[in-house]
Structures are given as structure tokens and as C-alpha cells.
Amino acid sequence: MHWIGVCCFWSLFVFVFSDAHNSTNNRTFIVDYEKNEFLKDGEVFRYVSGDLHYFRIPKSYWKDRIQKIKAAGLNAITTYVEWSLHEPFPGTYNFEGMADLEYSSNCSKTKACTYS
């Protein structure tokens, strides 16, 4: 198995709701260990996360699935990289089409998920 391997459930936490529209620089994120909670900008924040396996969904449906995740109230997505899709043979790499990992990540972070 390649040293990167299947990345053993490589967790990629991507905030679904983009904060790009908020231009203030006073944003904070604190872990309150005494109360066992997260504080985002001084308010209690709870991660509500779900899985999105980009390699099991046709690329043309990625935007739809991310919108449905948002509509369901989730604010984070976890995924793992199916490395055998990206390196089908030793030394041969594929990051196009269904294997476009960068596009998948950018599609989740921004609202500019367009198809060419």
C-alpha cells in the first residue's frame, strides 16, 4: 500500500457555511474545557457533521448534495480520500473528473460550485 494509502479515514472538516461574506477580523474560536463546549465569536457553537463520499456521487450532483446537507442543518462535512481512485497503479495519479479532490473541497467551502 502506498505510504499515503487510503489515508485511514483522512478527515477533512470543511465548514459548509462560508464566512467569506463577514469581513470582520475580530472572529474567534475557543474551546472552553471547563464547560466542555466550543465558543465561536463568543457564542456556544455545536458541530453538526455528516459524511459526503465525493467518489460515490457523480460530479454533477456534488452541488446538490452539499445544498441538501446545508438544508438539513449540518454545518460541517467529513470525508475520506479513497486513494485507490487517485492512484490506480503505483506512480500513476488521477485527480480529474470524479477524482477532482480540489474541486470537491472548493465546492464545499465556497458557494461557487460550477460545472464546465
UniProtKB/TrEMBL annotation:
A GO molecular-function term, please? hydrolase activity, hydrolyzing O-glycosyl compounds
Report the sequence similarity comment from the record: Belongs to the glycosyl hydrolase 35 family.
| A Gene Ontology biological process term | carbohydrate metabolic process
InterPro entries documented for this protein? GH (IPR017853), Gly_Hdrlase_35_cat (IPR031330), Glycoside_Hdrlase_35 (IPR001944)
Kindly indicate whether the keyword Signal belongs to this entry: yes
Q: What would be one Pfam family of this protein? A: Glyco_hydro_35
Q: Where is the Glycoside hydrolase 35 catalytic domain?
A: 37-103
Q: Which organism is it from?
A: Macrosiphum euphorbiae
Q: Which Gene3D superfamilies match?
A: Glycosidases (3.20.20.80)
Which keywords does this Swiss-Prot/TrEMBL entry list?
Signal
Signal peptide stretch? 1-20
What lineage is on file? Answer: Eukaryota, Metazoa, Ecdysozoa, Arthropoda, Hexapoda
Its protein name is Glycoside hydrolase 35 catalytic domain-containing protein
